[in-house]
Amino acid sequence: MSDSRRHWRGRALALALSCAIAAPAFTSPAAAQSAGNRLPVVRDAEIEALVKDYATPILKAAGLSPDRVEIVLVNDLAFNAFVAGRRIFINTGTILGSKTPNETIGVVAHEIGHLAGGHQERLRDQIARAQTIAVVASLLGVGVAAAGAASGSGAVAGLGGGLLSSGSGIAQRGLFAYQRTEETTADRSALTYLQKTGQSPKGLLQSFEGLMRRNMLAGVSANQYLSSHPAPQDRIGFLQTAAHESPFFDVMDPPERQLRHDLARAKIAAFNGGAQQVRRTFGRDLHSLPALYGDAIATHLAGSPQASLAKVDQLVKSNPNNPWFQEFRGEVLLAAGRSEDAAAAFGKAAKLDPTRSGLIQASVGQAIVAGGKPERMRDAIGQIERGLEADPGNSNAYVYLARAYGAIGEIGSAELATAEGYWEAGNFRQAKIFAARAQQKFRPGVPQWRRAQDILTTKVARK
Q1: Domain ranges within the chain, ordered by starting residue
Q2: Minimal CA–CA distance to 220: which of 26, 62, 381?
Q3: CB 365 within 8 A of CB 379
Q4: How far apart are CA 109 and CA 103, in angstroms?
Q5: How far is CA 82 from the centre of its chain?
Q6: DSSP 253
Q7: At what angle do helices 323-335 and 358-371 cross, to 10 degrees?
Q8: What single DSSP character describes residue 461?
Q9: What is the DSSP track for 409-429?
Q10: What pTM value is reported for the model?
């Protein structure tokens, strides 16, 4: 995968998935591609900043600290979102499929309802209870079947088989009923948070109306008792009444927020479907700023850096203070082999970025490393390490950090950076191997030795 796509590279995170907003899309193809529920996590400073701005007032309204809740983007075009631990996972398809910020905000409010309600903790208890019911029913079934065999009664043996098959069904239905109740509670909480923050509940309603239409077009008619979520039409009935009672129902998103939302949609469209997807998304106005942004990205991804650079230069000229245009310009310049110019563009982006994203800060150093000048490696190391202080989860930055240390002959530090990169990427086995190699090159007790020791001694939970 090229460096131009590095922020869109998925990190392997083994996660227990729960509380999806849309039952039919609960297990996306990407999420189900491995037994460990590994997700294609995408890193992008622009979209992360946007969604964080959506979530922050809602989190405060729910009594939660924004600094303690992480927003994670999943590169999946299905309209879906879910929570796990203190993380809110949002598919990029949810943003792409939301014509207004308010629709995405409604989804975020629903997921925050799960967090604030402690639904995950209670869900674990409910799962344990369901498993107990299933085990007891199965044991009873085995006992009845054994008695039937001993007595020669086929009828009794058949009854045992029925108990065996129904035990897990009873547990499953009980668990699903519990989840449906929690989904409805999250809907009510979302309405409360939107009311407190003076935002319209129309987007939440529109999201469920869209889900219902897609279900009807796809011929979905799941048994309500075998669904972990209330049927969309049931939720819509409640939401239509409650949403229209809100005094903020007709409040529209500010134009500046709408523009940021459309720029994010343009980026998602370009990275997932190229120019064709951009045209489908903005077909009514291909000369709008978001459409031009998506076109420039698609041109770059198609392997035409010079043509893309001309397009992004026009974007920068029209919006010189947009940090994301400067960041993308850095990407294009880097692909064109102009690493010093790329570092300068990333530096401008870092200065303009109000969020002080560690991703962009690290990109400055990564561009310098790509240039390959040994005399510049110390500067590159400083830039990347400052980026990692702000965002230690940026696994790709460790690759460049290791290259920079290797270029100046500090092999122990290069191996430690490699170990930490593997750790952040979820490859714990390789992380421990490189940590052991790095630790041998440091004096016991120094900070680098202790960082390697942390990796070596931390136990990784197994499913």
Answers
A1: 1-253
A2: 26
A3: yes
A4: 10
A5: 9
A6: P
A7: 20
A8: P
A9: T-HHHHHHHHHHHHHHTT-HH
A10: 0.78
Exposed e or buried b per residue across 66-105, where buried means at least 16 C-beta atoms within 10 angstroms of its C-beta: eeebebbbbbbbbbbbbbbeeebbbbbbbbbbbbbbbbbb
Burial class of residue 419 in the structure, from the number of CB atoms within 10 Å of its CB (0-12 exposed, 13-18 middle, 19+ buried): buried
Tell the residue number behind the tokens 């930055």, with chain if given: 397
Report pLDDT digits (tens) over 124-171.
554 454 455 444 544 554 444 454 444 454 544 444 444 444 545 544
Which two tokens mark 415? 């191996």
Per-residue CA distances from 293 to 43, 271, 327, 352 (Å):
18, 12, 12, 18
Quote the tokens at residue 190.
């979302």
Helix (H, G, I), strand (E, B) or coil at 81: strand
What is the model's pLDDT at position 237? 82
397, 361 in Cβ contact below 8 A?
no
More confident call, 237 vs 161:
237
DSSP string, 13-30: -B---B--S-GGGSS-TT
Tell how strand 87-91 and strand 70-74 pair up.
parallel
- DSSP for residue 381: H
Q: What is the pLDDT of residues 186-217, one digit of tens each?
A: 889 999 999 999 999 999 999 888 877 765 44
The residue type found at 164 is L
Q: CA of 292: how far to CAs of 49, 95, 138, 210, 264, in Å?
A: 21, 18, 61, 27, 12
The position carrying tokens 């075998």 is: 226
The torsion angles phi and psi of 299, rounded to 5 degrees, stand at -65, -40
User: Rounded to an integer, what distance in angstroms lies between the CA atom of residue 28 and that of residue 77?
Assistant: 9
For the record, the structure tokens of 457 come out as 């001694």
Structure tokens at 196: 């407190």
Whether the Cβ atoms of residue 52 and residue 72 lie closer than 8 Å to each other: no
